[in-house]
Write a structure and sequence with these properties.
Elements lengths: L8 H12 L4 H8 L3 H11 L1 E3 L75 E3 L2 H12 L10 H16 L4 H8 L7 H9 L20
Antiparallel strand pairs: 1-2
Helix pairs in contact: 1-4, 2-3, 6-7
C-alpha cells in the first residue's frame, strides 16, 4: 500500500483501535503501511475536544478547582452545591479567576486521551480521536465549495501524487497541468487552489518552486 494514499474509514478505525491499545505512531504506521508523520498529522488534525463526560456533566479543568471556594456565581440565591467548582453546569464561563489546566501529555504523541490509563479518573478536558468524525471532516474537505466541485478520494490521491512528483522536479503547477492535462481532472488554477487550501495532504504552498527558499 502506498504511504501517500489517503486514509480510508477502515484505516481510521484501525488507528483508533491501536490508539486505545496505547500503540506508538511507529507501530500504527507500520501496520497500516503509512509513514509515522501521516499518522501524527491525521490525529492532530482530526482530534476532537470533549468537554462533557458520559453523565453529560462538564469537566472542570480549572487550575484552582481543588481549593476554590467561589459560590453562587450563577446568581442564584441558593444552591445545594457547596462550591461552584462541583457544579455540573460548569463555572468556566462565570468565574473571573478561571484558568484552564492542560494535560502535559497532550502536548506530545499521541496527542489524544485514547489509551490513557487515567482517562476515567481525569477531570480535565479531553481530546479523543474518533474515526467517524475524522472521516466526515475529510469528506467535507473534499467537497468544500471553494474547490468548485467535489472530488473523489481516488481523484485527490492521483492529483496529490502527480503534483508532488513533478514539484520535486522543480515544475510549476501550470507546467504540471500542461504535462498531464489529459489525465488530471482539474485546471491549473484548481491545482494552485488545492495546494493553498492544503487539500492535497502531502503538498503545501512551501513546496512550490518560488516558496521553497522561504521554508523555515
Amino acid at each position: 500500500m502506498s504511504k501517500h494514499q489517503h486514509l480510508t474509514l477502515e484505516e481510521r478505525v484501525q488507528i483508533k483501535v491501536k490508539l486505545d491499545a496505547a500503540c506508538s505512531f511507529r507501530k500504527i504506521a507500520k501496520d497500516l503501511g503509512k509513514s509515522p508523520t501521516t499518522i501524527s498529522q491525521e490525529i492532530r488534525k482530526h482530534r476532537r475536544r470533549i468537554e462533557k463526560n458520559a453523565f453529560n456533566t462538564l469537566y472542570n479543568p480549572c487550575k484552582h478547582r481543588h481549593h476554590c471556594s467561589a459560590k453562587l456565581l450563577c446568581g442564584r440565591l441558593y444552591c445545594e452545591k457547596k462550591t461552584c467548582a462541583s457544579c455540573k453546569e460548569g463555572c468556566s464561563s462565570l468565574c473571573p479567576h478561571f484558568e484552564e489546566e492542560h494535560c502535559p501529555l497532550l502536548q506530545k504523541a499521541p496527542f489524544v486521551c485514547n489509551g490513557c490509563k487515567q482517562k476515567n479518573r481525569c477531570g480535565l478536558t479531553r481530546y479523543e480521536y474518533m474515526p467517524s468524525v475524522a472521516q466526515q471532516e475529510y469528506l467535507e474537505l473534499l467537497s468544500d465549495a471553494r474547490l468548485g466541485r467535489s472530488y473523489l478520494p481516488e481523484e485527490i490521491t492521483f492529483i496529490n501524487e502527480t503534483v508532488k512528483a513533478d514539484l520535486k522536479r522543480g515544475l510549476s503547477p501550470y507546467a504540471i497541468w500542461a504535462n498531464h492535462q489529459n489525465e488530471l481532472p482539474c485546471s491549473h488554477r484548481t491545482i494552485y487552489r488545492l495546494i493553498q487550501d492544503r487539500a492535497l495532504g502531502d503538498v503545501s504552498a512551501f513546496d512550490l518552486p518560488y516558496k521553497i527558499r522561504y521554508r523555515p
